[in-house]
Amino acid sequence: TAALNGSIGTTPFSLNDTTSQYYAAICSPYRDKQGNLVGALMNIRDITMLYLEKEKLQAIKDGISDGLIIIGADGSTVEFNEEWSRLFGLQPGDYSHPFFRQLSAQPNYNCDHDPEGVIDEVLQGKRITFYAHDQENGRHIQVTASPVMLTEKVSGAVATARDITSLIEKTVEANEMAAK
Fold it and tell me: What is the C-alpha to C-alpha distance for residues 172 and 168, in angstroms, rounded to an integer?
């Protein structure tokens, strides 16, 4: 119906529940030489490989033990996984704020680099690791942010975060024992 209303629409679908084939129907209006709408054109494409790769990527994001966030080229939050949400106290699915700008403004996090400056550098092509101390919960978090490169151009960033509190505690304990 989108095509008959004069707009282009794309609809992914599967022929039935028993097949692993996925298709996209791309519909567009068909007009005569005078510009009158006379019908619709439909192009059906097999998107099975794209669909399966998307499912595989989602399984990787869900299965990784580190926190993971994907940042757009403008610094906006595209998505993050459950572990990232847990580490930084974010609501699942809340992508309304640029995360690194938000982290800079939180007084309970003490970071060894300005998070907003970090993402600006990463979006210029630099990989950066920094540390955040959550003073409210006593957690130490290691964050590594890297640019996402497509055709030699930065198209966004990805960052991982890991709770390294037990590592810090063991290092302090070992240093105290060595000092005796």
Answer: 6
Read out DSSP for 58-97? HHHHHH-SSEEEEEETTS-EEEE-HHHHHHHTPPTT--SS
111 close to 131: Cβ distance less than 8 angstroms: yes
The DSSP 8-state label assigned to residue 115 in this structure reads H
Q: Burial code of 17-54, b = ≥16 C-beta within 10 A, e = fewer?
A: eeeeebeeeebbbeeeeeeeeeebeeeeeebeeebeee
pLDDT digits (tens, 9 = 90+) for 52-85: 888 888 888 888 889 999 999 988 888 888 898 8
Check the CA dihedral 59-49-10-98 and report its sign: positive
Cα separation of 43 and 137, whole Å?
55
pTM of the model: 0.70
The C-alpha atoms of residue 75 and residue 101 are separated, in whole angstroms, by 9
pLDDT digits (tens, 9 = 90+) for 135-170: 888 999 999 999 999 888 999 999 999 999 999 999
Q: Looking at residues 99-112, what average pLDDT do you find?
A: 83
Residues with Cβ within 8 Å of residue 60, at least 6 apart in sequence:
none
Q: Where do the H-state alpha helices sit in 111-164?
A: 115-122
C-alpha 3: how far from chain center: 32
